[in-house]
Design goal:
The protein is of the alpha/beta class. The chain folds into two domains: 195 residues, 3-Layer(aba) Sandwich (Rossmann fold); 135 residues, NAD(P)-binding Rossmann-like Domain (Rossmann fold), CATH 3.40.50. Helices cover 44% and strands 14% of the residues. The protein is built from 17 helices and 14 strands. It is elongated.
Length: 434
């Protein structure tokens, strides 16, 4: 199949490379000339394990190419995927659909023959209707089906998620559209990935509902962690105890400093706004968002308490800046309000992240960035673990202690065992553990 992928951001580039690896002929399109030039040089604009090799392999096989001009790829395509950004709109929290609608207008001008136009971007319910209206208004003679195919990719594990998905959701009631998308995803049949065909609006809702539910699980276990600390329970054992119930499951029950990233904060806000537009109250989702925002700000106070209630003149070492490991994504990362809070309390902040420091400098320009974890903790009054990079799990505790001004560790990801930290002579604070 011939595929045009509009947008070479996280979703577009990963999806395009994986489709090419399935054997399809894929052209990725982006207006950013610098990004396309970098891709031609083999430079990947995002950090995702294995993506550089996947792109290089399929470019070499001539199944994957990049361009700034969508006219030819769209005219030749059996399917055109819209994978542009839908950030939160300034002021009201709605998803900004201007890039989606601009792409639809451009696509309409180049359509030739029967084509399926697929929204892969996360979009509010009803967006597919508007995309179809825009295309038919701009090109009344177009033989086109507009479908929804939401993505469910985890940053850091996106390639595996694409090739071994829990499910593939396709939203269209048109049989020709179902056939084209069924053919595109047919290579997944070897992995027995379930294909769910449904209505377009239902597919759009599935994406938001899934992210809101996962965000709810995270927020729930974070509140249970707070209670566990007060009553002397261990939240990790609580999570395991409830997670073994297959109605609940173990995933997303890891207490921490709150969720961040490109999806959960943005999508929960957008879902709340969609509900308000239809005069529906989503009290649970509203609470999830409010609790999460408050939690991220509260983490700086937790550090302050570990140092006796004052951070004035203290040096704090922060390990991990990205919102999760195996990505360089700083969008809505918990480290941002944490570091801001530490600075507001008068602390000096030193930080290290294995891959995210260049991106972090744009969000947190007034802190000191270090070359490794040990340089980061030099002379620090406290060490704060914010992102659970695997590199931080095996640090030499004796060396850490010898470098620090005070042996205080605040572990916001529970990557260490309290008994090990006590044995090493640290004052140790974690999340939801006595």
């Amino acid at each position: 199949m011939r595929i045009a992928m509009i947008g070479t951001g996280y979703v577009g580039l990963v999806s395009g490379a994986c489709f090419a690896d399935f054997g399809h002929d894929v052209t990725c399109v982006d207006k950013d000339e610098g990004k396309i030039a970098a891709l031609h040089r083999g430079e990947i604009p995002i950090y995702e394990p294995g993506l550089d090799e996947l792109v290089a392999t399929n470019v070499k096989a001539r199944r994957l190419s990049f361009t700034t001009d969508l006219s030819t790829p769209v005219a030749d395509a059996d399917a055109v995927f819209i994978a542009v950004g839908t950030p939160s709109r300034r002021g009201d929290g709605h998803a900004d659909l201007s890039y989606v609608y601009a792409a639809a207008r451009e696509i309409a001008q180049s359509l030739s023959g029967f084509t399926v136009v697929v929204t892969k971007s996360t979009v509010p319910v009803g967006t597919g209707d508007e995309v179809e209206r825009i295309i038919r208004e701009a090109n009344p003679g177009a033989d086109v089906v507009v479908a929804s195919n939401p993505e469910f990719l985890r940053e850091g594990a996106a390639i595996r998620d694409f090739k071994f998905p829990d499910r593939v959701v396709v939203g269209t009631s048109d049989e020709r559209g179902r056939k084209v998308l069924g053919d595109i995803y047919r290579p997944l049949s070897l992995n027995q990935a379930p294909m769910m065909f449904t209505e377009r609006r239902t597919a759009e809702m599935i994406k938001y509902a899934a992210n809101a539910f996962l965000a709810t699980k995270i927020t729930f276990i974070n509140e249970i962690a707070d209670l566990s600390e007060k009553v002397g329970a261990n939240v990790q054992e609580v999570a395991r105890g409830i997670g073994l119930d297959n109605r609940i499951g173990t995933k997303f029950l890891h207490a921490g400093p709150g969720f961040g990233g490109s999806c959960f904060p943005k999508d929960t806000k957008a879902l709340i706004k969609i509900a308000q537009d239809y005069d529906v109250n989503l009290r649970i989702v509203e609470s999830v968002l409010a609790v999460n925002e408050n939690r991220k700000r509260a983490m700086a106070r937790k550090v302050s308490q570990a140092l006796g209630g004052s951070l004035r003149g203290k040096t704090i070492a922060v390990l991990g800046l990205t919102f999760k490991p195996d990505t360089d994504d700083m969008r809505d990362a918990p480290s941002i309000p944490l570091v801001t809070g530490l600075l507001d309390m008068g602390a000096k902040v030193r930080a290290f992240d294995p891959v995210g420091m260049e991106q972090a400098k744009q969000e947190l320009p007034s802190i000191t960035y270090c070359e490794d974890a040990y340089a980061c903790v030099q002379g620090a009054d406290a060490l704060v673990v914010v992102t659970e990079w695997v590199q931080f799990r095996g640090l030499d505790l004796d060396r850490l202690k010898s470098l620090m001004a005070q042996p205080v560790v605040v572990d916001l990801r529970n990557i260490y065992r309290p008994e090990d930290m006590r044995a090493a002579g640290f004052v140790y604070e974690s999340i939801g553990r006595p």
